[in-house]
Design brief:
The protein has 83 residues and is an all-alpha fold. The longest helix is centred in the middle third of the chain and has 30 residues.
């Protein structure tokens, strides 16, 4: 059996403290993950990609056709298709 949690509104927001803390923790985790993803994305743009003939995605972004190819590559990666 799960312990019964008291739902105490110590901040006067109408939201129990447990939920306020959980929401703050989720927000912190989300921020950390997004920062890591931004750093990873920047690094990925500078890495040669086999699917782009060994060129970097960043090099492809200089033209509309190249940007479309990078977009297709990202879409394939998002679907789990690793060329």
């Amino acid at each position: 059996m799960f312990p019964v949690c008291r739902q105490v509104d110590v901040l006067g927001t109408g939201v129990p403290l447990e939920f306020t803390v959980a929401r703050a923790n989720l927000s912190t985790l989300r921020t950390a993950c997004l920062k890591k993803l931004q750093l990873s994305a920047r690094a990925w743009l500078k890495e040669p990609a086999k699917a782009l003939g060994g060129q970097t995605p960043l090099a492809y972004l200089g033209t509309e056709v190249g940007a479309a190819e990078v977009h297709r590559l990202i879409a394939r990666l998002g679907l789990g298709i690793y060329p």
